[in-house]
Amino acid sequence: MAAPQDVHVRICNQEIVKFDLEVKALIQDIRDCSGPLSALTELNSKVKEKFQQLRHRIQELEQSAKEQDRESEKQVLLQEVENHKKQMLRKTTKESLAQTSSAITESLMGISRMMSQQVQQSEEAMQTLVNSSRTILDANEEFKSMSGTIQLGRKLITKYNRRELTDKLLIFLALALFLATVLYIVKKRLFPFL
């Protein structure tokens, strides 16, 4: 019959292998993931969780190794623990790479959103410029037509001013002629001998 420590060691080894395979599968899923940032974040958190469980099992195996009675078994188990720690260190590097790629993906998505907003703002600015140009062209055409109307009005006012001066001169001459006629008549009536 196997000792309880041997059973515990076997269970720890099986769970370490299980968590190791799950971490590998999750890292592969991260590599294959082309979906949204939320999916990458979820996969990343699962990898962290599995790493914590793997770390815990390796620590349990190390504790079991230290509790072994026979030195040979103790050294074999401690060597296994060291191997698992080395493998976990390489996987931790992969995890950090996955986190880095996730952060880079997030940054790129943010840049993409900012560029999209800039393009949209540029389109709106362009549309505003087109509308402003149209308004300015319309105002320019209206100004040209008003300019023609104003020049015509200026000519008419100048013509009426000349006519007014001519009318005043004619009225003055007519008044002078009338007064001269009245004086002549008055003179002939009052002073017929002159």
Automatic annotation (TrEMBL):
The keyword Transport applies. It is found in: Endoplasmic reticulum membrane. The chain crosses the membrane at residues 169-186. InterPro entries: Sec20 (IPR005606), Sec20_C (IPR056173). Residues 100-190 form the Sec20 C-terminal domain. This is BCL2 interacting protein 1. One of its GO terms (biological process) is retrograde vesicle-mediated transport, Golgi to endoplasmic reticulum. The keyword Transcription regulation does not apply. One of its GO terms (cellular component) is endoplasmic reticulum membrane. It is a single-pass type IV membrane protein. Pfam families: Sec20 (PF03908). Residues 37-71 form a coiled coil. Keywords: Coiled coil, Endoplasmic reticulum, ER-Golgi transport, Membrane, Transmembrane, Transmembrane helix, Transport. GO terms for molecular function: SNAP receptor activity.
